[in-house]
Amino acid sequence: MKTIVFKNAEGLLCVLRPVEGARLVKRVRFANEDYVYEEPRPADSVQRKWPDPDVQVLEWAETEAAFVARIAAKDLPETATDVTALDDADLPADRVFRDAWRITGGAVAVDMPAAREIYRTQLRQIRAPLLAALDVAFIRTLETGDVVEQAAVIARKQALRAVTEDPAIDAAQTPEQLKAVIPAALR
Fold first, then answer.
1. How do the pLDDT tens digits run along the chain, 187 residues long?
2. Model's pTM, two decimal places?
3. Which residues in 90-100 are b (16+ Cβ under 10 Å) and which e?
4. What is the helix (H) or strand (E) element at residue 167, kind and residue range?
5. How far from each other are the two terminal CA atoms of the chain, in whole angstroms?
6. Coil/strand/helix, residue 148
7. How far is CA 141 from the centre of its chain?
């Protein structure tokens, strides 16, 4: 089945997946009987559950290309640009960096600079509670006057602040390499 990808008015990549059950049928076999429809109807109107192993489509009323075009005409916003119909297999399987997907030459690819920023944001979210816990530990060292422990807490906090500056993040050339980067302060 084809998937429609496009850019919206804000320039973000959007994915529209037509549901096969909306494709029009002319003839189906259900419960060992053939049904022929004078007016084509959506496949999922034959049986509420779709896909249904008990319903066999004998004749579609529209080609897959016509079906995708009909859905695009009905559901795409007027501001859609770079509209492309792709096979599901042509979309990245991993959605971790979904907000970094871009349409390039009729294909969807991960924009690595955008993926790196997404990853840095994820690291910031991971480190936030760790920094909060170290804030509490630092206050305790102030109360006890333990300057050696104060220095240790300060060093741990600085290491956490630096996790987004790990050179391995900028060195990563693929999403898989980027996801494998785990800064030492977070291990």
1. 899 999 999 989 999 999 988 999 999 988 888 989 999 999 888 766 778 888 888 999 999 999 999 999 999 999 999 999 999 888 998 999 999 999 888 889 999 999 999 999 999 999 999 999 999 999 999 999 999 999 999 999 999 999 999 999 999 999 999 999 999 999 9
2. 0.80
3. ebeeeebbeeb
4. helix 167-171
5. 42
6. helix
7. 44
